[in-house]
Amino acid sequence: MTYQAPTVQAPSLAPALDRVWRLPGVYRPQADTALLAAALSREVVPGSDVLDVGTGSGALALYASRLGGHVEAVDISWRALAVTRVNALRGGHSIEVHRRDIRRPGRRAGGRTYDVVVSNPPYVPAGRAAAAHRAERAWNAGPDGRQVVEALCTASARLLRPGGVLLMVHSALCGPQATVDQLAALGLSARVGARTRVPLGPVLRSRLPWLRARGLLAAADDEEELVVIRAERR
Ligand SMILES: C[S@@+](CC[C@H](N)C(=O)[O-])C[C@H]1O[C@@H](n2cnc3c(N)ncnc32)[C@H](O)[C@@H]1O
Prior knowledge:
Belongs to the eukaryotic/archaeal PrmC-related family. It is built from 8 helices and 7 strands, in the order ααβαβαββαβαβααβ. The protein is α/β, with parallel strands linked by helices and 234 residues long.
């Protein structure tokens, strides 16, 4: 059973994650970022090649660099990439920054592989009405929340070298078991590595009736579970 992973207390953001500079419309590092950072610290060793997919402000890329990783950071948003470049310069980190849509495999630099792929992708289930604003690309992920999650699973099978590890955070609302099953079908050894519960944030609260109507949240739910999926390429 994948759900045997212990529930951990939601880690607080390391001050360094909290202090990253941002422009409006770029995701503010929060509990999901912190949970993933805690998992990263168990995987990245000096010299690891790390890819941060959907880097946003670059918080996780900077964190992996601090752990000694050689880091490449990609995002679909030019604004996020500009912010990541500035944060890398300010922190004195040498991070490669590229625009990439992870749903488009052809746009990847030829055949490069990594020891660690880390991602906090968009994973919030969203009806059509919710998709409008560009900044919402940071969290909206289609009716089941899996639009980018599934593309990332598929991409990871190619991006990881043997023994390499994918660390991806998402909400229990968008189906951790489906993610584990998809990764296993791609030949990766996958499980839920950590989970924690956090109060519902403003985005989920703003679409409570829709989420309840779809059976994704019960009337009494005022928290959401976040999980870190860990998958290793054999
Ligand atoms: C939830 S934010 C995470 C930001 C940062 N990694 C963090 O944890 O604080 C998701 C990021 O994924 C990016 N994104 C959305 N769709 C993408 C795609 N198809 N390919 C690459 N990046 C994408 C968004 O622009 C956004 O910066």
